[in-house]
Amino acid sequence: MQVEQVTADGLKREYKVTVPSGEIEDRVRTRLERLAKTVRLPGFRPGKAPLPLLKKQYGRAILGEVLEEAVDEGSKRTIGDNQLRPALRPKIEVTSFDEGKDLEFELKLEVLPEVPEVDLGAISLTRLVAETPADKVEEAITNFAKARQKFEAPAEPRPAQDGDQITIDFEGKIDGVAFDGGAGKGVPLRLGSKSFIPGFEEQLEGAMPGETRDVNVTFPADYKADVAGKDAVFTVTVHEIKAPVDFSMDDAWAESLGFENLAEVHETFAKRFADEYKSVSRTRLKRALLDKLAADHVFPVPEGMVDLEFDAIWKQLKDEMERTGEQPEDGKSEDELKAEYRAIAERRVRLGLILSDIGTRNEVAVAGEELQQAVMREAMRFPGQERKVVDFFKSNPAAIEQLRAPIFEDKVCDFIFEKANLTEQPVSVEELLKDPDEEAEAAAPAA
């Protein structure tokens, strides 16, 4: 077998592999001799069938198997002898073969780049820390209580007022035509909750049980695309009016909801806020880390990997635009959008290679029980079909790998956080929850 390197351009490699005809013929003959020991042909005793007859009957099938085997072995030998690390499955094309002649094929691939080693101790990051304001806890508990508040019909019929829970039927029309999702029957609505379109609830205040009203509203501009910004008329019938029952948020109230006392309610809600802020803080810390790694470590990445990542991003974007009816942001052309998202795809691939290299160097691994927990979390998303989901992952290694990747990434990031120089910066809740992209846009003019 002869291997000749044709191209070495950046991360791209191309080889020409030649397997001599004699080697192909020897392999075919060996297969035929092995077959002759077991095959039965009419008129011949077992093991006595002549090779020419066997070749005539089975030669083409055996030749196909031999060629496939030769290409596979030649590819593996080329990759092994040249110490190549393929980024993706190599592309193989047979360029020449006739019976009795040499087999020639091309092997094209991209190799993984040499990833520069990252000095983890030289990384400096700031972790944002926000304390939970007491008023937010109180507000959340109050809203929690209101959501579970009991309602009773007034002793005497009266008009609906702010805070009441009413039961309604409604049908909405735009230009006299009903639209999808614009009707409902027996729907409970608490006036003042702002759970319906702006202006809807206010127009039902003062209605009596059994009364029908026309409610005129304008859908917000950011509503569903088919009704956004349009005027609509809802015909609403009020069937029942219930008034909120007064209550006191005390120990007895807490016990009725399954808590030991009111103090435990406060502790529970405070912990929920603390956990939420901690999660947001970690997300922002991780983003800062990835931004720093991407900015400080620039190297070429395999185009094939970028193509695959871009195709996945672009498909997701197109599917979302089709689902929502939204147009490209800021009126950008498709070519501009593709260039923008291809840059994102390249960044993702580069960061993936960096994190993979750090994880490999430091023996970061995803344990079997961590994968099992991830599978069970996925299964819990489909009540009644848990067994099917578990079986799906058991029989699909690629699906398991999709679960492994984000777990591995998070573990590598946690490892880096342990080695990096972290400083904590107290911030307000508003600052912690602010979109980093908005912050970057606000800082751009000053920069």
Overall spatial form: elongated
What is the subunit organization of this protein? single chain
Q: Which sequence of SSEs, written as H and E, runs from N to C?
A: EEHHEEEHEEEEEHHHHHHHEHH
Class from helix and strand fractions = alpha+beta
Question: What fraction strand?
Answer: 15-25%
> Helix amount, in percent?
40-55%
Please report the distance between the alpha carbons of the first and last residues: 61 Å
Radius of gyration: 34 Å
Number of strands: 11
List keywords for this structure.
447 residues, alpha+beta, five-stranded antiparallel β-sheet, four-stranded antiparallel β-sheet, 12 helices, 11 strands, elongated, disordered C terminus
Structure description:
The chain is α+β, with helices and mostly antiparallel strands and 447 residues long. It is built from 12 helices and 11 strands. The protein has helices at 21-36, 51-81, 134-147, 251-256, 262-296, 303-324, 334-361, 368-380, 386-394, 397-419, 429-433, 436-443, and strands spanning 2-9, 12-19, 91-96, 103-110, 124-129, 151-152, 165-174, 177-190, 212-218, 231-244, 421-426. Strands 6, 7, 8, 9 and 10 form a 5-stranded antiparallel β-sheet that branches. Strands 1-2-4-3 form a 4-stranded antiparallel β-sheet. The protein has a two-stranded parallel ribbon with strand order 5-11. A hairpin with a 2-residue loop joins strand 7 (165-174) and strand 8. It is elongated and about 105 Å long.
